Design the sequence.
């Protein structure tokens, strides 16, 4: 009689599955365009304001490919606790949290240092945009959850060293989505702030490095430097800037170019925010 | 809240005065402590103060803030990715089989027949290539009065780490052989709660500690288990120096060791801020409180194209050489000025101006309501936002920095950095 | 001179205090206020420089009384007086006290202090004056706008933040002390009130013998027209708070604590109260005045760093010296910087070394 209490292994020998090595990533977009952005506000009814952002998956056929999915909720402005000292401004707190499954490496539930770092960047970017003194003695919490973290899930041999370049893309998405959510919550802003990334990439040793907007990390040979900017288009001002990489110092030209390109990316993202906010307002007017 | 914005309590009149004096154009900014715009606070520095470390440094400002950095290095096994083994086992099968513990290698050899063929060529090329991984450096910052996971501390840590790792060259220095590497622990400790934003202090101290860091000389060859020379005097500098004769004098903290200038230098992060059109280096707490924007710029130096002749401490050498500067990272710092209380112009100040003379309490409130508009009177602080900028009244800056200004700040750092051989006087 | 790195040096040898009892204010952190004790006290002082550590028995002679910085063990041998702090022993007649080398400010009635509002409550402000406890400024202890000396009303309570709000600086007098040592301040004089048109600096906690000392005058006006760079006759007010908080500002005729003699008396208060007392708007300050204010600040920093006392005489002498130094080095650009070596030179010139 067969033993039904246990799960037995197969009777014969097995061979582990062997996968064909997938073709290397192919560049799917031109260097001076950004991926398509899906942005929707008002997705979380319980929050004062909320927004969801998704970047186009450039290459949906390939199994390992993912894109960026962010959700942002804004709670407030609300009164500060009694114990808090007087503040003539709104107190802004930002939380950026990766979902445990958002990246290749599982993230714990406690915020790690990179998440806190992103939170500080986001706070800097937003603080310049909101009119803080309109809301004395109040606080607002901005929570961004990274549902999918723009990391390629290709087979490991084509994975590059994790140099954290994808964090730049995540940050720019966070800025854009938080800006839309703040506007949705009705907090006064001087302008809609939007994030954009540009990178100096080198495909291989032979070609000269080029500047790419909204780089998809997996699609490029190596990234030499990248720059993420939060930008207020109407005021033509930058509220947050984060540049890292190797750039020969004398070459301010390349640096300026990189900045300019990321500003273009910001403007593109900003158009999406403005359009979505327009639609929301229109919809709201239609109902009432 | 980031650490820049903590413990900041300045009156609007002070802020307006500071902003006014720092944004002067014609004689340049007048800083409250009389420094020139590019002048740093003087500091006392020593290296090699901790015998139990591979490298250490201490910097002390005149105001008593002090930072100590200790660098410790440990030998660590490099976890080999199975995909690298595919290539490596071709050449050195005996070597890898010896490592019975590594299950990964077994698995890799199992898969190898099928997938290794085309990977082989590139991997074989990478075989003797010195590699590095960001995991090999662990940097921790301790600031008294702040929690370890305070976002301000985390921001400082990631900024300093980022500068070290940005060019990917630093970690290559930690490579021993294909199986082992140095793991470098940089522990940065601030002795007392900071009186100003501690970034320049921490960065300078780290810079000096890394310059003084030495690793034992390797005696073994190739991929053997590493063996090191016991003689500390023979230990090699992490940042090799051009003049080896002065090496011995480094232990005694004398400035004479400065004669041996390292060919390349560890990164350094500078804090620069802008007020109006003026760019100011190394701002104090009060100055940072009126900044329109603040930027941390990390710069490192690659091997110079020619050696400097007798660099003297505390002065710019006569021969400025062409230096191979590299811009590593730039971050905007949230200026605490955005959280400062606004001043009230006399025209709307119920308690200040002469129109209030001989007013009874009831008319005072009436005048307050008429001076401000509608509901704004409900928030006495909110009405300031509706008024125009008035000369002499502080208003927290809004918005961000202009593109040109950010670029100018970075350019100025590079320019200044190129002109001055920093910290060669530190012995 | 972009960056200066100084050679690490040993701490300077302790300065020997002048044993001569008559010059007791020579370079001391004079925290217990010799002036307040009056002249006759000087005679009884004999061992100014004897150093005490906590727990050390000072005397068991019953003729002595215990003062600040000492304690007695209750019980049989209650005559024994022990030191409770580390510092120098001072004998004032039959009173034994130990003066700590470094101490926080202890308020005394009548002190002129510069303070910063840290908290606004319903009917009073809490003010940081550098002491162990926050001082209080009740709403009833300020001059209310409206000209006449009037009673405070609920309206005043509701708009308490329009008088002083968090972070603002004020100059006030210690009116009364609580048992726990906390001070109650008042600003019921034209000399006192909100501070503007200048810079703040704090010299507390520096130790080493420097610091603000109680003196006849804590506030004075400095004439800066002596420097030939300055056009016009601008003046600077220097306000040395007894608590070590210092305010340096542009002088405005008839305003500020330095206007003690020239300003209108208490009888004319109704005519001028409410003009600028609660303003947080700065006047237009000439560039030269700003520069000289920075110079005065540099002088005071140099005095403190070199362990010299900060009072009217030293600041005026130091300022004149700094102007001289600046004239000598006309070519170099950074004539305002008075830190490090330049500060030492200034201090040496002042004490005649």
Sequence:
């Amino acid at each position: 009689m067969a033993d039904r209490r246990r799960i037995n292994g197969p009777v014969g020998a097995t061979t582990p599955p062997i996968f064909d090595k997938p073709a290397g990533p192919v560049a799917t977009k031109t260097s001076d365009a950004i991926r398509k952005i899906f942005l929707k506000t008002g997705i979380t009814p319980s929050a004062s304001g909320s927004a969801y952002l998704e970047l186009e998956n450039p290459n949906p056929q390939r199994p390992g490919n993912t894109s960026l999915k962010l959700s942002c909720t804004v709670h407030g402005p609300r009164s500060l606790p009694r114990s808090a000292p007087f503040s003539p401004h709104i107190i802004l707190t930002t939380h950026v949290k990766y979902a445990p499954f958002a990246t290749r490496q599982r993230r714990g539930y406690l915020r790690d240092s990179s998440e806190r770092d992103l939170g500080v960047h986001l706070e800097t970017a937003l603080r310049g945009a909101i009119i803080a003194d309109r809301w004395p003695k109040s606080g607002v919490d901005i929570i961004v959850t990274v549902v999918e973290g723009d990391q390629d899930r290709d087979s490991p041999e084509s994975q590059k060293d994790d140099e954290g370049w994808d964090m730049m893309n995540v940050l720019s998405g966070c800025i854009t989505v938080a800006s839309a959510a703040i506007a949705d919550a009705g907090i006064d802003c001087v302008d809609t702030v939007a994030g954009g990334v540009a990178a100096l990439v080198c495909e291989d040793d032979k070609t000269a490095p080029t500047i790419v907007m909204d780089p998809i990390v997996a699609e490029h040979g190596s990234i030499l430097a990248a720059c993420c900017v939060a930008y207020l288009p109407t005021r033509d001002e930058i509220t947050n800037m984060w540049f890292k990489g190797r750039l020969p110092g004398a070459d301010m030209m390349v640096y300026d170019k990189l900045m300019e390109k990321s500003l273009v990316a910001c403007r593109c993202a900003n158009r999406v925010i403005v359009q979505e906010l327009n639609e929301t307002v229109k919809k709201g007017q239609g109902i009432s | 809240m980031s650490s820049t914005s903590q413990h900041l309590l300045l009156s609007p009149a002070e802020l307006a005065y500071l902003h006014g004096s720092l944004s002067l154009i014609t004689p340049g900014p007048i800083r409250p402590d009389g420094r020139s715009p590019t002048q740093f606070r003087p500091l006392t520095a020593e290296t090699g103060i901790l015998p139990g470390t591979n490298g250490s440094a201490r910097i002390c400002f005149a105001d008593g803030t002090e930072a100590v950095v200790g660098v410790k290095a440990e030998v660590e096994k490099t976890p080999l990715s199975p995909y690298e083994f595919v290539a490596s086992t071709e050449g050195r099968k005996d070597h890898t089989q010896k490592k019975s513990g590594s299950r990964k290698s077994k698995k890799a050899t199992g898969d190898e027949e099928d997938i290794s063929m085309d990977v082989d060529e590139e991997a074989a090329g990478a075989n003797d290539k010195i590699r590095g991984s960001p995991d090999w450096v662990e940097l921790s910052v301790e600031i008294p009065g702040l929690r370890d996971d305070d976002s301000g501390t985390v921001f400082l840590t990631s900024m300093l780490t980022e500068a070290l790792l940005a060019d990917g060259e630093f970690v290559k220095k930690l490579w021993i052989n294909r199986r082992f590497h140095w793991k470098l622990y940089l522990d940065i400790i601030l002795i007392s709660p900071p009186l100003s934003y501690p970034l320049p202090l921490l960065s300078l101290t780290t810079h000096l500690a890394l310059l003084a860091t030495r690793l034992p000389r390797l005696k073994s060859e190739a991929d053997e288990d590493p063996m090191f020379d016991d003689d500390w005097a023979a230990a090699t500098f992490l940042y090799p120096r051009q003049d080896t004769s002065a090496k011995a004098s480094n232990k005694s903290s004398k400035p004479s060791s400065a004669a041996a200038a390292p060919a390349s230098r560890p990164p350094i992060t500078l804090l620069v801020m802008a007020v109006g059109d003026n760019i100011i280096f190394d701002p104090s707490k009060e100055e940072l409180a009126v900044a329109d924007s603040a930027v941390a710029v990390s710069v490192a130096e690659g091997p110079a194209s020619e050696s400097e002749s007798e660099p003297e401490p505390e002065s710019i050498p006569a021969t400025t050489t062409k230096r191979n500067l590299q811009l590593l990272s730039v971050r905007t710092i949230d200026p605490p000025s955005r959280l400062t209380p606004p001043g009230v112009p006399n025209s709307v100040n119920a308690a200040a101006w002469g129109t209030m003379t001989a007013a009874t309490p009831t008319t005072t409130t009436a005048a307050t309501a008429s001076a401000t508009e509608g509901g704004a009177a409900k928030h006495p602080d909110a009405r300031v936002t509706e008024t125009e900028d008035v000369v002499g009244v502080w208003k927290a800056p809004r918005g961000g920095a202009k593109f040109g200004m950010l670029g100018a700040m970075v350019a100025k750092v590079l320019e200044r950095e190129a002109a001055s051989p920093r910290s060669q006087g530190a012995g | 001179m972009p960056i200066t790195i100084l050679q690490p040096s040993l701490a300077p040898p302790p300065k020997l205090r002048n044993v001569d009892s008559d010059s007791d204010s020579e370079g001391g952190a004079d925290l217990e206020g010799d002036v307040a004790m009056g002249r006759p006290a000087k005679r009884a002082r004999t061992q100014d420089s004897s150093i005490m550590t906590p727990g050390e028995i000072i005397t068991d002679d019953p003729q002595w009384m215990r003062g600040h910085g000492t304690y007695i063990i209750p019980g049989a041998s209650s005559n024994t007086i022990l030191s409770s702090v580390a510092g120098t022993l001072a004998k004032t007649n039959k009173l034994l006290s130990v003066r700590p080398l470094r101490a926080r400010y202890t308020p005394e009635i009548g002190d002129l202090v510069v303070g910063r509002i840290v908290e606004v409550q319903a009917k009073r402000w809490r003010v940081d004056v550098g002491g162990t406890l926050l001082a209080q400024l009740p709403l009833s202890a300020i001059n209310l706008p409206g000209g006449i000396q009037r009673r405070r009303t609920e309206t005043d309570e509701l708009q308490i933040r329009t008088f002083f709000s968090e972070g603002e600086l004020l100059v006030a007098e210690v009116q009364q002390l609580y048992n726990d040592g906390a001070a109650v301040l008042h600003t019921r004089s034209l000399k006192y009130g909100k501070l503007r048109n200048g810079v703040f600096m704090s010299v507390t906690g520096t130790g080493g013998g420097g610091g603000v000392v109680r003196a006849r005058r804590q506030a004075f006006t400095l004439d800066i027209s002596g420097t030939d760079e300055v056009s016009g006759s601008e003046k600077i007010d220097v306000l040395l708070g007894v608590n070590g908080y210092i305010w340096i500002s542009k002088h405005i005729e008839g305003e500020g604590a330095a206007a003690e003699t020239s300003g209108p008396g208490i009888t004319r208060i109704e005519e001028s109260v409410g003009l600028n007392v609660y303003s947080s708007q700065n006047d237009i300050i000439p560039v030269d005045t700003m520069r000289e204010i920075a110079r005065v600040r540099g002088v005071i920093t140099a005095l403190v760093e070199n362990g010299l006392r900060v009072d009217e005489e030293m600041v005026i002498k130091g300022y004149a010296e700094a102007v001289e130094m600046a004239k000598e080095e006309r070519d170099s650009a950074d004539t305002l910087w008075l830190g490090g070596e330049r500060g030492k030179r200034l201090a040496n010139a002042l004490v005649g070394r």
Chain B touches chain A through 60 residues (CB under 8 Å).
